[in-house]
Design goal:
alpha/beta; four-stranded parallel β-sheet; four-stranded mixed β-sheet; 20% strand
Length: 173
């Protein structure tokens, strides 16, 4: 089955393409700011398990009724949930074993968006949300509590072996 992280609504054609990969089993709402379409998946696919970090359960549950917290459900699927040192308790980092090593899944704590064309791309660039791998200025203002602790945590987790990381719906890493 499929686990969707920070799922976004898709048109029928793209949803059909996604479903060819497998049944959607779990939708992870990674933060309060990324919950817009979680309830839509639950409505469309009633058997989907909707989860979010325990730290944001109250901020999410009214809008997107949760089946469990990420910490309760994801370990059953072989996914470890990590709190991130130096950040406010807003989101988790997820870790699973892949064919070539560990798979680390971040949301706003660490991501990369290629520069995009048009006004939307210009706005992302001006916000510091595209063109580099890291934490955006906006995320630093909203989530960062202790930069030294965050950096030490990133270095510690990076020492665990090869890393392939993808940040939510934000693009390529």
């Amino acid at each position: 089955g499929l686990l969707l992280h920070s799922a976004i609504a898709l048109d029928e054609k793209r949803l059909a393409e996604l479903q060819k990969l497998g049944d959607i089993e779990v939708v992870v709402i990674p933060s309060p700011d990324h919950q817009l379409d979680g309830a839509k998946y639950k409505k469309r696919f009633p058997n989907v398990k909707l989860v979010a970090p325990a730290s944001i359960r109250d901020k999410v549950n009214g809008r997107s009724p949760l089946d469990a917290t990420a910490e309760e459900l994801l370990p059953e699927h072989g996914i470890q949930c990590h709190t991130v040192d130096g950040l406010k308790p807003v989101e988790l980092m997820y870790e699973a074993k892949g064919k070539e090593g560990r798979v680390l899944l971040f949301n706003d704590a660490l991501f990369n968006v290629k520069h995009q064309p048009g006004f939307g791309g210009f706005a992302l660039k001006m916000l510091g949300s595209s063109g580099r791998f890291g934490m955006t200025r906006v995320a630093r203002m909203l989530f960062l509590k202790d930069a030294k602790a965050y950096r030490a945590w990133l270095e510690k987790i990076a020492d665990g072996g090869p890393i392939w990381a993808r940040g939510g719906t934000h693009g390529n890493a």
